[in-house]
Each structure stands twice: as C-alpha cells, then as structure tokens.
Task: structure prediction
Amino acid sequence: MQKRWTILHADAEKTKSLSGALKINATICEILVQRGIDTYDKAKAFFRPDLSSLHDPWLMKDMQKAVTRILTAFEKKEKILVFGDYDVDGTTSVACMYQFLTSVYEKELTDFYIPHRYREGYGISKQGIDFAKEHGFTLIISLDCGIKSVELITYAKELGIDFIVCDHHLPDLILPPAIAILNPKQKDCNYPYKELCGCGVGFKLITALGKTLQLDDEKIICYLDLVATAIAADIVPITDENRILAFHGLKQVNTKPSNGIKALMFLSKAEKEMHITNLVFMIAPRVNAAGRMDDARKAVQMFIAPTYEEALSFAELLHADNDDRKEADTSITEEALAIIQQDEHLQTKKTTVLYQPHWHKGVVGIVASRLTEHYYRPTIVLTKSGEVAAGSARSVNGFNLYEAVHACREHLLGYGGHFAAAGLTLLPQNIDAFTNAFENIVANTITDEQLIPEIVVDATLSFSDIKQPFFNIIKQIEPFGPENMRPVFISRNVTDTGFSKIVKEQHLRLVVKQNNVTLTGICFRSAHLFPIIQQGPFDMIYTIDENEWNGTTTLQLKVIDLRPAAL
Result:
C-alpha cells in the first residue's frame, strides 16, 4: 500500500540558537525544537528528568478531601476496598494503591476488587458495590474508572459506602457524588499536567498520603516500575510528568523490578536492557491477556506477591492466557481477512464491519487493529455476547471514529470511546442497518488522504552524520512514546551496493550507500520493494538502531519505507 510521507520542519532561528547553546548536532536540535524543547533550560530538564520536578499533588482538585477521608478511615478502623479496571492501567493502579495502604494500615481491613470483563463489564459494577456492602467496606477507592459512574456511585452512597474516584478519562457534565474526585481533566482542576494515566493519578494520591504520614521517599517511589508499565500500556503522551515517571520507572525495571515485573521479564525472555517498547510488547500483553481470556484478579495477585516464586506462579497463568490470546487473535484475523478477500463489495468500501457470533470477545479489539493495519480504513469487529452483538472499533489517523459511531446511535444499544477507538453493543438484527449507516457516514466525511497511511519524518539526514556519538544522543531522547516518538529520518539519493537481498522470502537485508558512506539496514515484510532498490537511486525513511552480532555492536537502519528518488 502506498504511504504518504509528511516531512516536518523546525524554526530555523530556534534550531540555530539551541544548537549553539547545546553544542550538539543541528539535526537533533531540529527534532528537539519540533517537540517544544527550544531553550537550554528546557533541554536540561528534558535530558535529565528529575523526580524533584514532579508537580505538587496538592494542586489536584479534591486531593485534600481524599487524603482526609482516608485518614478518617484509618482512625475509625473502616474497611477500604481498592477497585480498578481489568487492563494494565487498572491492575497496576490497584496493585500500587493496595500495597501502599497495606504498608501503612491494617491488612485485614483492606482488599481489592477487579470486575470480570464479561460478567460485569468495564468500570464500576453493581456486583462490586454489592460485594463491598456484603463484606462491610465503607470506603471504595476507584482507580482508572468511576468518572462516568453517576448512578452506581449514587447507589453506593445510599448503601452507606463512600467513593474516592481516581480517573483520567474525560468527565461528563454530571459528575458522580463521590467524596473526592481526582482527575486533572476536570475543567475546574488547576493541576498543571492533564495527561496522567489512571495509575499516575493513583500515584499522586499515594504521594500526598505519604507526605502527610511523613514517610521516606523510598516508600513512595518504590511503585514506579508499575507506573511506567501503565504509562507505556495506556499510550499516554511521554511528556512532562509522564516522561519523568517513565524514565525513573524504567530505571527501576532495569535495576530493582518488583517480583511481578521480574517474573514477566523472565517468561518473555527479556535479556537486554528494558525500554518502553519492551513494556508495551512484552509485559503489557501478558497482563492484558488475564482480563481478555479469563479473570484479571490474578494480574494484581502477581504484582503484589511477596516472593518471586509466588509472583512467577501467577505470571505463568498470565503467560498461558497470552498464548491462548495469540492463538485466538491469529485464527480470527485470518478468518476475517478471508471473509474480506472473498467479497469484492467488502474490498471496495470505505469501512470494514464484520460479525461472527463465535469469535472470542476478548480479542475483537486486537483483530480490529490488525484489519485496520491491513486495509487502512475505520474498522469494527463484532461477536455475540449473551443476547446482543458486541465489539470494538478502530480508526485511521486523523479520523474521529467516536463521532461516526455516535452518528449511527439509533441502531445501537450502547457505545463509548474516544477519537481513535470505541466499543459498542447492538441487537444482532440491527447489524446490517448499522453497517450501512456507518459506511454512509464515513464515506461522506473521511478524506481520500486519511485513507492513505502516513509516515511522519522528523528530519533529513546524511549517512555521514550517522555515527555512534550521534546515536548516543538519540538514545537520550528516550523513553519514546506518543508526542516523543523515536526520531524518523529520510536520506535521499541512496543507492544499492549490489549486496542487498531478500531474506526469508519476505524481508529485505540492505547494504546501501550515500556519498561513499555504506550502511546496513533491515526492512521487514517488504520484499516487494526490492525492484525499487535495483532500479537506481531511491529515497529511504528509517530509524537508527543498534545491532549486536557475535559480541560486536554496530549501527543499523530500520527501514520503514522507500521509493524512487525524487527528481
């Protein structure tokens, strides 16, 4: 599939000024300026993230109310229930808060609750509140959920149960009647950073409690490996506070990980230094698999396990769930692609909506993502859930999927989500009507450009600049993630040395040169591009990485795309 190349440009004066101040390569300064780092002081804060630069937790609206209510519970010997969602952000949040509370309060008066994905659904559940009432809990601290649970928190209040809500999702106009709501996205919250994940919000409450109880910093920051895992998995911007928390959390992952993280690293055969991408692709899927395939409670049990052996036994259950998830994901994706390939009408549409009652509900979101990668158009994958059809939707870059689903709401029982992804339920007999309505809405609002995958390029680079000192500074831009992605470069008029070849029938192993500088590279699943390399000069988009072979480390290009050289 042809891709569009968007090449970014930075303010020339700011780039020159920053390059003079930092005394480093101008291309790196160009990337920094694009990311809002345009002075020496900003660069210093960026390259040396310091925990002392974290914002004061008391700036968050209702923080004092939350701390006061928890201290009152301590004094009165109330039972406290920590409640969280079944994904990575929710389970790490619960693990952090539960461990902290049991370190400062009586363990037998504290418990945690994770709703079952299929029996209870997302967020606060009536079953969870009834569990709290039945077992004598009078305070629930919800993490990564609760901001939209107006009716259920009202129900809890009627039962004499107070709520403290820690959430990061967008609030509605009507807020739940909680004792305190910690959410920096509230319009009247003056907290300076709005992009914390759920675990990040919970960490701010732990910080405020720790300071009130005059605890050593170590008793607070010991949860940063879990916070970094949540930041990575929840795909929040790696800027400001998230950058500081992720940077120091990764340090902890690599030096002194908690038993649960250590066990997952062992099972996923992590041998080298862990990066954000390792958390995203090795740790997060195994944690998420617990909720997708079975019960996410065991993910929390793994994170809070007092010994490595105990953590490993739970991690093995997650690992098995992940194997089941991969199997279901692969077979359903193959089945879905076959359905599209056998139907010419489906191939020519601007959307994909597929329904098979036997597909596993836990992986339809992943399958929707896979189909979006393949056909690059707004995609919905549905399966049967009880008496209704339920599923997940995924968008393409720049298209507001939530608005498109919202426009078809007359055919739905329920829906929710955001710009890029959504979930929905409807009656099976309404699927055809919804499919037609969704296609019409998308076809009339999406642009042709939005249906072509975009590669954003940070800067033009010459092969002569690609040396170890240059790469060492690139590494210091880590941790990478949204709004601070791994820098992508373009080099023009590159030629083949004659040693490039197709390997394993689908990948390209490149040995290419520009102005007498020769470099090697790999381009995955791109054997079809080999003729372009052979035909003459070409332009190439890539990231820079290190390749270790037989104890020797060399720089290598990870090629993303290439095309004949622009005249």
